[in-house]
Amino acid sequence: MNASIFEFSHYKTYLNEKIKSMPSKGRGQKLKMAEFLNCQNTYISQVLNTETNFTLEQGSKLNTFFDHSKEESRYFLLLIHLERAGSEDLKTFYKNEIDELIIKNSDLKKRTNVKASLKIVDQEIYYSSWIYSAVHILVTIKEFQSAGAISRKLNLSKDKILDVLEFLTSTGLVAKTGNTYSIGVTRIHLSKDSPHIQRHHSNWRMKALQAIDVNEPGNLHFSNVVSISEKDIVKVREIFIKAIDEARKIVKDSPEEKLQSICVDFFEV
After folding, report:
1. CATH number listed for the domain at residues 120-183
2. The pTM is what?
3. Residue 47, pLDDT score
4. Which helix (H) or strand (E) holds 180?
5. SS3 181
6. From residue 180, how far is each of 19, 99, 159 by CA, in Å?
């Protein structure tokens, strides 16, 4: 199943979808679950299709059965807690716990496990302008591995590009062999709590606005204002997060040919 457990607000829906996604649509899976929980096969069907719920002890065993990660296990048990809660106050408590965990797992730093390698003083320079990250990534493309080629591509003076390349080389983000430049550290990533994240977003939103003015046919720009329920906000955000994850996987294995910017915004007005 490609869907993340964090996309589900009911553990029974999650389990039913997970079973269906297994080979042969999960035939025999309920029997294996019953054997693992030391219960009747009919009990599994009863829980998945009626108001009967698994106990927390059974939920803990199912975490082992499905090989859930630590965060997935916690989320799964919270969903069971929510279904078993006997009062609205208790349901609200578990809903808040669930929402906090969803937000926590929306942090791309935790999903990608990428760590910044720059010193704080170097981060301030790198994220001061879009030029540094543009040049940094441009050198991964063979035809843009010289200062002259980069200067012409970005329509900036060669002296400016040489200054940027000197900085990138000194930090190890770019390597230099003769007059040819290549990538050093492959990726760096800013967490949502970084003091430089606002500048980084602003730098590339400004470039996006310039791209909108040029209006190249191959570019994609989407803007829309909607009204939506609170629970569906979580679902839509998770869709975007998943799409970003999938895009990053494609980019990782894609040959370096074009320099593209990816900007995604989904926020409350």
Report:
1. 1.10.10.10
2. 0.54
3. 95
4. strand 180-183
5. strand
6. 53, 49, 16
